[in-house]
Write a structure and sequence with these properties.
The structure holds two protein chains of two kinds. Chain A is an alpha/beta fold. Chain A is rod-shaped and about 175 Å long. Chain B is α/β, with parallel strands linked by helices. In chain B, strand 10 and strand 11 form a beta hairpin. The chains are: A alpha/beta, B alpha/beta. At the A-B interface, helix 18 and helix 25 of A face helix 5 and strand 10 of B.
């Protein structure tokens, strides 16, 4: 016998949030160092008490296990969420290739682990949740398994069918000792579960595509007839089992009307006397009758039977009829293992030494392997007990089998690896005395250790899975760190962009100011200005030469009339020179068209400079409209930008006009249009124009006034071109320089550009921050999912 | 060129001929300048027995015709320089600074020639020989007078117009002539030489002659910019040459009414310039600045005299022989100046008239000429004049 872990308080093995007390009397630890038949069989009452205590202990563990199960369920979900988040980040078109590569992480394995953890905890929960000690009964067909069950339960053929020839047990039962009850509780299939659990495995085995969605579809499903398919038919797998499977399926279909009405789902409680049709295959005689054979068992998912056991040693006892090993049914082995894991504390593997089978053969070895695979973390020796059915056999066969088992299974040492018990399965007393009693006694001693093994084993697995997931989250963290280091934050990016925006605007404005400064130094180079002045001058000259606005003859007539009244030419000449002076100034106001265009051109340039650096902020607006919109946006910004706004508004107030800016500077050129002048010889004031009061005098006066007007207009033009040619450029240069100073060079500039950037981030850089946000959101989603997962995992580690 | 005894058009071959070169483009106002010189000299020589007058019929006719045209324009109240007939053929203006004594005057001979000849592009191919003769004349002058249209300098208002100025004024060609003349002067380092830059038609740019504005400094500045090559060539090519800047109001009672710069493919600059003048009421001509030209010429004569006197003193020194030889080689100009201005020449002339009862009066007149020249040379130039 190999050494075994002694009985440990389960609480030591759990780190989960459970607090348990072991109420079961603990046997002498030294006396139970090894699993196996108890050295001294406890009294029945002891066994009863111990098992009751063990079951109570199990129940106390349940909340912790369930909490752990919920935690792992959460881990599974969080892992899924993390995988989804990582995948969203990895597969996004804007994610850099190197990051995509780094994000290829083993999520599938981790999720598989989480799923396994959930499964393990469910198995453990099922173990701990049971109210009974369950003994599974397994074995090949025809070994007396049902007979053994009848002996234990006291039930008869109507509840646990037995037969000499064909297999008779169609539905496996779970039978519980209940002193006051005699009933069967059927859990029935619905049509959907019938299709999923019963029909689908056959379809899979038979390579039949699709499943019936309704009873009608199943009723008319075109299953082939075995005789329609030759051995060489390509659609046939060529196995005899295929034909058998098909025949069974066709039998199900043909019998469908006999159980279709039972596919109701839910439970149905029956008297035990009525149970047989629900749990037994049709007899041979029934099979041979014409017409549809009743197969109501096909509607049954499972059966629970409550009845008083004749030799009830333990109140909380159940026996579970495990699906027959080697039975020819789809997924039979899978069902068998599933039942073992969740349902039983110990398995009785029944072996009967009948003629031709009194040896430990391959089928037995495979059966043992199958059961072994389902024992989980429980010690093999604790989980399986071999039972030799000694009924209706010879001593020679029994001896042969016993010896063979000792040699093949226990390596020549009795009960070394597996305990072997013997009984006549048909003898209820014998079964009780030689099997049930020692097994229950064994469980009463060993169950705490078995439970501890299950818990410890589960925990060990969970720890390994936890480590795998932690490694994965570490990988995620490393990738996220590299992402954060390479991309920086939105705030940093915005900061950088606002600096660049300011630099770009600065560069462009400096260029503009430089251009305007150069224009202030190049007199006569502005052809547009020259043309504007020349046009205004031409207008002025036309006005002069066309008769000073009224026509030469009219002027002269009027002059003569006035001079005649005045008796001299002075007053009229003086008045006319005044009028001419005013008119010349008015004519030169024509330059304002050019000035307006220059100011507009400056606004256009500045607007374009701003537009070209501010993305979609100004929309489609150009020129003055764009500047006004910019000023309004600056005024409405969520963070105040007063200096920037003032800079733009000041630019919009720039005015260039002849009357206010140039006329005062060239006004002196019109001084010649005065009546009085200083005599260069005498130094006295004298009338420049004195003509006689006559038509000739009027003509002469006209000529003189025209000449003076022409000269004044010409001098004005010359002054505008020579002296004032740079004035527009000076005004515009000053305006642009002021804009540049206020926008770029003021102490608040940098701060206000940051405010502008923050206020209109998405308009200034359309799509950029949306994408950055989205990218960051994707990264943040990964981080959040990672954090949640790490927190959940850490709960256990803490 | 040097003053030499002239081949007199009327056989009056005893006067000293003082050749003055004229360099300027067509219609710049060379005739106007000479006319102004004659007109202003009357005021200058008023009260002296000396006069400056056209000498010889061709000059008299030319001057008379110019005066008539000008008077007509002024009478009409307007003056357009283009309306005056420009020089089509070379013409030698002959002026006589006349003392009244036959053979004792100083003749000023000024060669006027078509300004277009300065520019090879506008000079007729068949007149190359004549142009060479003009060049020889120019190179032999000790005075080079460069009349410059002040309006062309002062009226540009755009870069394009400014760029056209040198072409309109034929500044490069004038500069070339000046440079050649300077090289010639450099061969005679002891001989006084005078380069006169005379802006003409300056009435609109000074306020000392009825004008309302003074833009004299701007005029000088622009002239120095436009003629920088010629001016800067003087110290490099002939440091002994004196440069006098003397703006002249050639009419005095006109003012620019307007100026036009019009595209003209015929002009080398592609642009033609025309100034339109109005007549300043009451339309009385008042030449200004021509006296400065005359004073400068007199100073030049006196300088030449002083140079001769210096040479004469050297005669008595053994080392003076070489200078004498130089003076003789110099076609006798220096000695002629000396004789003319110290009375020797007059005495020679007088000996021919010794029997005349007017001999004493003649002596007085000859002396008066020398005195007048000396007196003019001593006068301060007007405020417009610059020398360097």
């Amino acid at each position: 016998m190999r050494s075994q872990r002694g009985h440990e308080p389960l609480s030591r093995l759990y780190h989960w949030r459970v607090s348990i007390g072991t109420t079961a009397p603990v046997p002498d630890a030294t006396a139970n160092q090894q699993a196996g038949p108890p050295a001294s069989r406890p009294e029945t009452s002891d066994t009863e008490a111990r098992i009751a205590a063990i079951l109570a202990d199990r129940h106390r563990l349940l909340p912790g296990v369930r909490a752990e199960g919920a935690r792992w369920q959460a881990v599974d979900e969080q892992l899924t969420a993390l995988a989804v988040a990582v995948e969203a980040l990895r597969t996004h078109s804007t994610t850099p290739a190197e990051l995509r590569e780094a994000l290829v992480l083993p999520f599938a394995q981790a999720r598989e682990g989480a799923g396994e953890a959930v499964r393990l905890l469910r198995v453990l929960e099922a173990r701990l949740a049971r109210d009974t000690v369950n003994v599974g009964v397994s074995g090949q067909a025809r070994v007396g398994k049902s007979t053994l069950l009848q002996s234990v339960s006291g039930l008869g053929d109507d509840q646990i069918p037995t037969g000499q020839a064909l297999p008779v047990t169609a539905v496996r039962s779970r039978i519980f000792h209940a002193p006051d009850l005699r009933r069967a509780t059927l859990r029935l299939h619905s049509f959907d579960t019938f299709v999923t659990d019963v029909v689908a495995p056959y379809h899979t085995e038979l390579d039949i595509v699709g499943l019936p969605g309704t009873p009608e579809e199943f009723r008319h499903w075109p299953y082939p007839k075995p005789d329609e398919i030759g051995p060489d038919d390509a659609s046939s797998p060529g196995r005899p089992s295929w034909v058998t499977m098909l025949n069974r399926l066709r039998a199900m279909q043909q019998s469908f009307p006999t159980y279709e009405h039972d596919l109701t789902g839910g439970e149905r409680v029956l008297p035990l006397e009525e149970l047989r049709p629900w749990v037994a295959y049709p007899t041979n005689a029934e099979e041979q009758r014409p017409g549809a054979v009743a197969r109501r068992y096909l509607a049954v998912r499972d059966v629970r039977i409550d009845c008083p056991f004749p030799h009830a040693q333990v109140r909380h006892l159940g026996i579970v009829d495990l699906p027959g090993l080697g039975e020819f049914a789809a997924r039979a082995d899978e069902h068998h293992v599933g039942g073992l894991q969740n349902e039983v504390d110990v398995v009785l593997l029944v072996k009967r030494p009948v003629e031709g089978m009194a040896y430990w053969g391959d089928a037995d070895a495979r059966a043992l392997d199958l059961i072994d695979s389902a024992r989980g973390f429980v010690d093999r020796r604790d989980f399986v007990v071999l039972v030799l059915n000694t009924g209706d056999t010879s001593d020679a066969l029994l001896t042969a089998l016993r010896d063979h088992i000792r040699g093949q299974v226990n390596s020549g040492v009795s009960d070394q690896f597996f305990q072997v018990l013997e009984c006549d399965a048909a003898d209820s007393g014998d079964v009780f005395a030689r099997v049930l009693t020692p097994v229950l006694a064994h469980l009463a001693v060993r169950m705490p250790a078995m439970d501890a093994d299950a818990v410890a084993g589960t925990r060990g697995e969970l720890r390994a899975i936890t480590q795998r997931i932690a490694t994965l989250t570490d990988d995620v963290t490393r990738v996220l760190t590299s992402v954060a280091q390479s991309s920086g934050s939105v705030a940093e990016d915005l900061d950088l962009r606002s600096r660049r925006l300011r630099q770009d605007l600065s560069g462009a404005l400096v260029g503009l100011v430089g251009e305007l400064r150069a224009q202030t130094r190049t007199v006569g180079e502005d052809q547009d200005y020259t043309d504007a002045v020349e046009r205004a001058y031409a207008t002025t000259r036309r006005w002069i030469t066309d008769g000073l606005g009224i026509g030469e003859q009219a002027w002269r007539d009027e002059a003569l009339r006035a001079m005649t009244v005045d008796r001299n030419s002075s007053r009229y000449a003086g008045d006319e020179l005044n009028r001419v002076r005013v008119e010349i100034s008015s004519c030169f106001e024509e330059i304002d068209v050019y000035f307006t265009a220059r100011v507009q051109a400056l606004w256009d340039r500045v607007a374009e400079i701003i537009r070209s650096s501010t993305g979609a902020l100004l929309g489609e607006a150009v020129g003055e409209e764009a500047l006004r919109r910019f000023a309004a946006l600056l005024a409405e910004a969520s963070e105040a930008c007063p200096r920037l706004r003032r800079a733009v508004e000041q630019l919009l107030t720039v005015r260039l006009d002849y009357r206010s800016q140039l006329h005062p500077r060239v006004r002196a050129e019109l001084d010649g249009l005065t009546l009085q002048e200083r005599d260069p010889v005498t130094g006295e004031q004298r009338n420049r124009v004195v003509v006689e009061v006559s038509p000739d005098g009027a003509e002469q006066l006209y000529a003189l006034v025209v000449q003076m007007a022409e000269q004044a207009a010409y001098l004005t033009k010359k002054a505008l071109l020579l002296r004032e040619g740079v004035t527009p450029a000076l005004v515009l240069h000053a305006a642009a320089e002021q804009l540049e100073d206020t926008m770029i060079r003021s102490g608040e500039s940098e701060r206000e550009f940051k405010r502008l950037a923050r206020s209109y981030r998405d308009e200034l850089w359309p799509g950029v921050f949306g994408e950055i946000d989205a990218a960051n959101a994707r990264v943040a989603a990964v981080a959040r999912a990672r954090d949640a997962l790490v927190a959940t995992i850490s709960e256990e580690q803490a | 060129m040097s003053p030499v005894p002239a081949d007199s058009p009327d056989g009056f071959d005893q006067d000293l001929v003082f050749r003055v070169g004229l360099v300027g483009p067509s219609r710049v106002g060379k005739t106007s300048l000479i006319t102004a010189l004659l007109r202003d000299s009357q005021r200058l020589l008023q009260g002296t027995p000396v006069s400056l007058r056209p000498f010889g019929t061709p000059t008299e006719k030319r001057i008379a015709q110019h005066r008539r045209e000008l008077d007509g324009s002024l009478l009409a109240g307007e003056f357009t320089p283009g309306a005056l007939r420009g020089t089509e053929e070379p013409f030698r203006f002959q002026l006589l600074l006349d003392s009244g004594v036959r053979g004792a005057g100083i003749r000023l001979e000024l060669l006027d020639y078509p300004g277009g000849w300065l520019d090879p592009a506008t000079r007729p191919h068949d007149r190359d020989h004549d142009w060479q003769a003009c060049q020889r004349f120019l190179q032999q002058c000790s005075v080079l007078l460069v009349p410059i249209d002040a309006a062309v300098l002062m009226e540009p208002t755009s870069a394009a117009q400014l760029r056209a100025v040198p072409s309109i004024l034929t500044t490069p060609e004038v500069g070339e002539v000046v440079r050649h003349w300077l090289k010639e002067r450099n061969w005679r380092p002891d001989e006084p030489a005078l380069l006169m830059l005379c802006p003409v038609k300056c009435e609109s740019y000074f306020d000392d002659n009825g004008g309302r504005r003074d833009e004299g400094e701007e005029l000088l500045s622009r002239l120095r910019r436009v003629y920088a090559d010629a001016i800067e060539a003087v110290p490099a090519e002939a440091p002994n040459v004196r440069v006098v800047y003397a703006p002249v109001d050639t009419i005095g009672c006109v003012e620019i009414l307007h100026a036009e710069w019009t595209p003209d493919p015929r002009e080398p600059s592609g642009m033609a310039f025309a100034a339109h003048y109005g007549v300043r009421w009451p339309a009385r001509q008042a030449v200004k600045g021509a006296d400065d030209v005359l004073i400068a010429l007199c100073r030049h004569l006196v300088a030449a005299q002083q140079r001769v006197e210096s040479d004469s003193a050297d005669v008595h020194r053994s080392a003076a022989e070489q200078a004498r030889q130089y003076a003789e080689r110099d076609e006798g100009f220096i000695r002629n100046i000396w004789y003319q201005l110290n009375g020797e020449r007059a005495r020679r002339a007088h000996s021919a008239l010794v029997t005349s009862h007017r001999a004493g009066e003649a002596d007085a007149r000859v002396s008066a000429l020398a005195d007048v020249v000396a007196d003019l040379a001593r006068r301060d130039p007007g405020g417009r004049v610059r020398q360097w």
